[in-house]
């Protein structure tokens, strides 16, 4: 197939199959000419040997021979095209509208005429600028597709635009078919649309600029976050190292203090025992003397010996108040308190046992039979949100009727269990566990003595543990997902900020005797401000 390229085309030297300049042109009996490869491949795809143009059929297949005359003319045409395309002037005209009257060299058109349907360079445009008849012709910026600007119905140039039908019109279209429509000139419509496009462009430019600035701000914020994280890690390492060093030094000092006090007590004890041993020796000597005096049974002899025998009283102390100081080593309570305090402080930063808690994850779903009629539960039982209209729900004994609460279907009466709830986007919520025997109908007070071990979030920034009395909790960061851990035997209910892996609050020292159920409240809707759902999410651990 031919593959020659050109800056201009000529139908006299073009194959009607490949639409390019002939390569090895061959003529068939009807007189039409094609590239040898083009007609050969065409006949390979059809069942009849026919001319692609006039449809004349041949049987058998005609012999193909090169048309020497057309081949020679096509080659000359190709050479002429190559010469033109190789000149700097023609290269500069590539992609431009060319004057239809120029021969060689070609010139770029400066205007196109919608009456003549031709494009003119500056020289050939002069008649349109000087001759009265030609001055009435419609001139536009040079374009290549002048035929597309001609009305196919009336053969007149498009000069108008119908706003109702959104289409181009010639003068005849306007007069005949669009007399009652809103019709404007192409210039008017283009001006209006260019103005609108200009505004749209300004708007899009503003949107781009705004988003580019937002992107820059985010990148800057990320840089700040990374810097803060580096500082936090550095500070953490410094503080932890200082704490460990202080504890090690305290351990050395405490060991030395205990040993010193032990030595002092041992010395004091030895001194006491030495002095007591000396007094015991004196007392024993007196006892021996007393024993000798009382050996005879004869009264006369006994009195005679007693009168002649003098017993000296031993020099002894009154040891009634003697007490060795052994309370100096009673540090267990203080050390236990130290351990609890350190663990508590560290757990508010990041509980190192958090991953262990997650191992006790259980599958929890909302129980529709306990849900207040204003609460809507998803089909999978994993989401609950406060609606705008009450459902028709039976007033079952287990249902909350006055407050926006719901329990889980699953209850637990032993062991450990853990679950997580997404609270992102909610300025109010309640979470926790409750005893199976709680009051669900009347006035409900959230406190452990009433069977509720809960925390709640209010006003988008206030965390409270409903411990009775309530405990206001510090909020380092607003949690987006809360984990709840229960150790039934230990009487512990703990709440965690899952993303920070830090403890929020723990109820400890409880004695559970009934089944415990996970407890939830998405709270009031607040006109859509608190419409987000509480979502029970799968527990995932990234080890």
UniProtKB/TrEMBL annotation:
<dbReference type="InterPro" id="IPR001870">
    <property type="entry name" value="B30.2/SPRY"/>
</dbReference>
<dbReference type="InterPro" id="IPR000315">
    <property type="entry name" value="Znf_B-box"/>
</dbReference>
<keyword id="KW-0399">Innate immunity</keyword>
<dbReference type="Pfam" id="PF25600">
    <property type="entry name" value="TRIM_CC"/>
</dbReference>
<feature type="domain" description="B30.2/SPRY">
    <location>
        <begin position="344"/>
        <end position="539"/>
    </location>
</feature>
<dbReference type="GO" id="GO:0008270">
    <property type="term" value="F:zinc ion binding"/>
</dbReference>
<dbReference type="InterPro" id="IPR001841">
    <property type="entry name" value="Znf_RING"/>
</dbReference>
<keyword id="KW-0391">Immunity</keyword>
<dbReference type="Pfam" id="PF00643">
    <property type="entry name" value="zf-B_box"/>
</dbReference>
<dbReference type="InterPro" id="IPR017907">
    <property type="entry name" value="Znf_RING_CS"/>
</dbReference>
<feature type="domain" description="RING-type">
    <location>
        <begin position="15"/>
        <end position="55"/>
    </location>
</feature>
<dbReference type="InterPro" id="IPR043136">
    <property type="entry name" value="B30.2/SPRY_sf"/>
</dbReference>
<dbReference type="InterPro" id="IPR051051">
    <property type="entry name" value="E3_ubiq-ligase_TRIM/RNF"/>
</dbReference>
<dbReference type="InterPro" id="IPR006574">
    <property type="entry name" value="PRY"/>
</dbReference>
<dbReference type="Pfam" id="PF13765">
    <property type="entry name" value="PRY"/>
</dbReference>
<dbReference type="InterPro" id="IPR013320">
    <property type="entry name" value="ConA-like_dom_sf"/>
</dbReference>
<dbReference type="InterPro" id="IPR013083">
    <property type="entry name" value="Znf_RING/FYVE/PHD"/>
</dbReference>
<keyword id="KW-0479">Metal-binding</keyword>
<dbReference type="InterPro" id="IPR027370">
    <property type="entry name" value="Znf-RING_euk"/>
</dbReference>
<dbReference type="Pfam" id="PF13445">
    <property type="entry name" value="zf-RING_UBOX"/>
</dbReference>
<protein>
    <recommendedName>
        <fullName>Bloodthirsty-related gene family, member 2</fullName>
    </recommendedName>
</protein>
<dbReference type="GO" id="GO:0045087">
    <property type="term" value="P:innate immune response"/>
</dbReference>
<dbReference type="InterPro" id="IPR058030">
    <property type="entry name" value="TRIM8/14/16/25/29/45/65_CC"/>
</dbReference>
<dbReference type="GO" id="GO:0005737">
    <property type="term" value="C:cytoplasm"/>
</dbReference>
<keyword id="KW-0862">Zinc</keyword>
<dbReference type="InterPro" id="IPR003879">
    <property type="entry name" value="Butyrophylin_SPRY"/>
</dbReference>
<dbReference type="Pfam" id="PF00622">
    <property type="entry name" value="SPRY"/>
</dbReference>
<dbReference type="InterPro" id="IPR003877">
    <property type="entry name" value="SPRY_dom"/>
</dbReference>
<keyword id="KW-0863">Zinc-finger</keyword>
<feature type="domain" description="B box-type">
    <location>
        <begin position="146"/>
        <end position="186"/>
    </location>
</feature>
